[in-house]
Design goal:
Elements lengths: L8 E5 L3 H7 L4 H21 L4 E8 L7 H25 L1 E6 L7 H13 L6 E9 L1 H17 L10 H5 L12 E4 L18 E3 L10 H13 L12
Parallel strand pairs: 1-2, 1-5, 2-4, 3-4, 5-6
Helix pairs in contact: 1-2, 2-3, 3-4
Length: 239
């Protein structure tokens, strides 16, 4: 494929796990299990395509409203994923970071995730950004409060605030902005995911549920992305 548009950061809303399970007369949590197993395939393709960052909307601040049993299964699958894949991530030189307030996660889950973060902290080839207990509005409020605190503490002046300095207070401060957002299962919304980071991202909404989102489906999305003309508020070049 012709790569006219540079692609550094792709973000995924992994939607449709529950519907995938329902269509197969399976419990919802088995859809989440299948979804976790799909993640590594897409990670491999991101890595092979030379993409530098992938962000995954794994658990939102609103997901606490789901049944407790389903939430418990989600965290169990998350723990299993990192325990199973940590060697692969290290071998690839892939750094794990977390976006979101993980203080509310079960202790075992939090420890497993932080262990992966610590083990991979010096890796530089790729960044695997897992968004846990994440909400975009919460992230912006948190960043604003932290900047205000620095002003009160004399570390910053109010005139220091601009787009670049504000980004230093986001969970994703070390990452490039999102170039491409993919939400599976055909839903046409971003659901409070990375609103600041998505400012100039391209959006693609494949209809397949996440467990059926294969490498081929992903490559189709990349073809679509590279066919687009990203102008960032400018005008199209004259032919």
């Amino acid at each position: 494929m012709e790569k006219k548009n540079n692609l550094q950061h792709v973000a995924f809303i992994m939607d449709g796990n529950g519907r995938w399970a329902k269509a197969r007369h399976l419990p919802r949590h088995l859809g989440h299990k299948a979804g976790c197993e799909r993640v590594i395939d897409i990670y491999e393709e991101c890595y092979a395509q030379g993409i530098k960052v992938m962000s995954l909307y794994a658990f939102s601040t609103e997901n606490w409203n789901r049944p407790k049993a389903e939430i418990n299964h989600l965290f169990e699958y998350l723990e299993s994923f990192f325990k199973r894949e940590i060697k692969r991530l290290l071998k690839d030189g892939s750094r794990v970071i977390v976006s979101g307030d993980i203080s509310k996660l079960p202790e075992k889950t939090r420890k497993t995730v932080l262990d992966s973060v610590d083990k991979t902290k010096d890796c530089q080839n790729f960044t695997f950004n897992i968004c846990l207990n994440y909400g975009g509005k919460e992230e912006i409020v948190r960043a604003s409060k932290n900047f205000a605190k620095d002003v009160l503490d004399g570390k910053k002046q109010i005139d220091d605030l601009n787009e670049n300095t504000f980004e230093e207070y986001l969970y994703t401060k070390s990452l490039p902005p999102v170039d491409l957002l993919i939400r599976t299962s055909g839903e046409l919304r971003t659901s409070n995911f990375l609103p600041w980071q998505l400012a100039y991202a391209e959006f693609i909404f494949p209809k397949v549920p996440w467990p059926d989102f294969t490498k081929e489906e992903f490559r189709n999305c990349l073809e679509e992305y590279y066919s687009r003309d990203r102008r960032f508020g400018g005008i199209k070049d004259e032919q």
